[in-house]
Amino acid sequence: MEHITLLLGIVIVTALVFDFTNGFHDTANAMATTISTGALKPKTAVAMSAVLNLVGAFLSVEVAKTISGGIVNEDGLKTEVIFAALVGAILWNLLTWLVGLPSSSSHALFGGLIGAAVMSMGWSSINGGTVVTKILIPALAAPLVAGVAAMLATRLTYRIGRNTDTKATAKGYRVGQIASAGLVSLAHGTNDAQKTMGIITLALVTGGVLNPGANPPMWVIVSAGVAIALGTYLGGWRIIRTMGKGLTDLQPQQGFAAQTSAATVILASSHLGFSLSTTQSCSGAVMGAGLGRKGGVVRWSTATRMFVAWGLTLPAAGLVGAGAEFLTKQGPWGIAATAALLVGGSAVIWVLSRRNAIDHTNVTDDEVRTDGDVPAEPIGVVTTAIAAVTPPPAGTLAASPVPDTSVKAGVSAPTTTTTGAMADPARPATV
Question: Is 0.90 surpassed by the pTM of this model?
Answer without folding.
Answer: no
